[in-house]
Design goal:
With about 140 residues, this protein is α+β, with helices and mostly antiparallel strands. The chain contains 1 helix and 3 strands, in the order H-E-E-E. The radius of gyration is 32 Å and the shape is rod-shaped. The protein starts with 12 loop residues before the first helix and ends in a 15-residue tail after the last strand.
């Protein structure tokens, strides 16, 4: 009896499954790392934006306190609409615009807040609308 030799490496299903599992774990780890980095960058931007906003609010409250005394003394200077306005910087392109109107009633509140809003100045903004496509 003559035997025929079998020439194969006998790579089993366990080895193929292990290779697939390792590749899957590496790809999921890479995706998780990219996602967590993007979340960190977004969180940092939101933190900086919140700090700038509350700093501007603090300055605006100082503006209100200054004008409170001036309105009570009758020394406040208003514009043509009867408002006292001021802008506080949030970022390069945004300001917090505050306007108050002296109250005509003789009550304990010398003014009312006519406007308190964040305004975006888009005249100097250059938007990058390109798509980074690999050629």
């Amino acid at each position: 009896m003559k035997r025929n030799p079998v020439y194969s490496t006998h790579i089993g299903a366990a080895s193929v499954l292990l290779i697939f599992l390792v590749l899957s774990l590496i790809s999921f780890a890479a995706l998780t790392l990219v996602n967590s980095r993007a979340d960190y960058v977004l969180s940092k931007k939101m933190y900086d934006r919140s700090v700038a906003y509350y700093k501007a609010c603090h300055e605006a409250n100082g503006f209100l306190a200054e004008n409170d005394e001036l309105i009570k003394k009758g020394l406040a200077k208003t514009d043509g609409e009867g408002l006292i306005k001021n802008s506080f910087t949030l970022s390069e392109f945004q300001t917090l615009d505050v306007s108050i109107r002296p109250s005509s009633n003789d009550n304990s509140v010398p003014y009312e807040i006519a406007g308190w809003k964040v305004v975006t100045h888009t005249d100097n903004v250059i938007l990058d609308e390109t798509l980074p496509v690999i050629k």
